[in-house]
Design brief:
The chain has 342 residues and is of the alpha/beta class. Helix content is 42%, strand content 13%. The chain has 13 helices and ten strands. Helix 1 packs parallel to helix 5, helix 1 (33-50) crosses helix 6 (191-200) and helix 10 (271-289) crosses helix 12 (306-317). The longest helix is centred in the C-terminal third of the chain and has 19 residues, at 271-289.
């Protein structure tokens, strides 16, 4: 898609003398005020931490003038004309007017120059509908995923927070926009600065791009029968204080034999191992995305000690908790084997 240039990518080295990076924020009538505020707030806060205006931004739209957002915000935007005045990165904000209009051609022009394009929520849905065969995985806000699956063939559609398909990042948007933007500016910050940026934004954790959108498995009630859904929800709700299988079966009103059979058929696993993996997965998330002491994480995930947790984590992922945490850089955006933020 063209020779890579100075874009927002993990390959960009941390450089205190780096030239200013310009972000084009594309809006349409009814744009998401939450997403727009998240974008500009992260950029402005990063500039404050760096002590200089490394990041600047401007607004574009298909119909120039004063554009009103969904929460009453007003933005004066310039026209987006083909490949004229392309920025270092383009972010298309979601909202009621985020149909795949002229910005799609502009996004393609950015893609040809190997510059990153970020498409959020409703705009991501419009992009997926307009793109018949993306080269990589795509995602959007979970509320649209079911309808996309029902109305078309989208084999590369996931429920992750964001995905990268050859330089075009589709994302859930909404409240997850803050973390996505932190990931995109991270290559220009040191790891302590990334952590400090998260603190300034009051983000207790920084989720990675491949984290699942915060909609529990048990919320997909159409996929499982009512009692299995209840079991999964009970397991998810008691990760910090695990129940015995007898307690679970008693609360749900099923026999142990029936529960074993259903889990074997649905997940090819036993209920006990499934439950343990939920706890280990939670532990991994907390180890990698927070600075909590290991003992606190062990207790929060229902393990009797750090040693017990370490054994379970290594058994599942092949690496100890200490090695997980000792990585030299913070990697938030990990797309299909490539790392897109430091």
């Amino acid at each position: 898609m063209g020779k890579p240039d100075n874009r927002f990518d993990v390959a960009a080295a941390i450089d205190t003398q780096a030239q200013s990076r310009v972000i084009e924020i594309h809006v349409a009538k009814g744009f998401s005020g939450l997403e727009l505020a998240s974008i500009t707030h992260v950029l402005a806060t990063a500039n404050t931490l760096l002590g200089r205006d490394l990041f600047s931004w401007r607004y574009s739209t298909d119909t120039p003038g004063i554009i009103a957002g969904d929460q009453g915000a007003l933005v004066r935007a310039e026209p987006a004309i083909g490949d004229h005045r392309l920025a270092d990165m383009m972010v298309v904000v979601g909202g009621k007017g985020a149909a795949a209009g002229k910005w799609l051609a502009r996004a393609r022009a950015m893609q040809r120059k190997a510059r990153t394009v970020v498409v959020l929520s409703d705009a991501a849905t419009a992009y997926i509908q307009a793109t018949k065969a993306p080269s990589g995985r795509v995602t959007t806000h979970w509320r649209d995923i079911t309808s996309l699956v029902e109305t078309g063939y989208h084999p590369k559609l996931t429920t992750h927070l964001s995905e990268n398909s050859d330089g075009i990042i589709t994302a859930a948007g909404a409240g997850a926009t803050l973390e996505l933007m932190v990931g995109l500016v991270a290559p220009y910050l040191t790891s302590p600065q990334v952590a400090e940026l998260g603190n300034h934004l009051l983000l207790q954790t920084l989720r990675k791009s491949d984290a699942e959108q915060p909609k529990g498995m048990a919320d997909n009630e159409g996929m499982f029968d009512a009692r299995l859904t209840k079991v999964i929800r009970l397991m998810e709700d008691t990760v910090n204080d695990p129940l015995s299988m007898d307690e679970i079966t008693a609360r749900v009103g099923v026999s142990t034999r029936h529960l074993e059979r259903v889990f074997r058929t649905t997940f090819n696993d036993t209920p006990a191992r499934f439950y343990k993996r939920l706890r280990v997965k939670r532990a991994r998330t907390m180890i990698e995305e927070s600075l909590l002491p290991m003992i606190d994480i062990a207790i929060a995930c229902g393990f009797a000690s750090c040693t017990t947790m370490a054994k379970a984590v290594k058994g599942e992922y092949g690496v100890t908790p200490s090695k997980m945490r000792s990585r030299k850089s913070i990697q938030l955006l990990t797309y299909e084997g490539r790392q897109t933020a430091r």
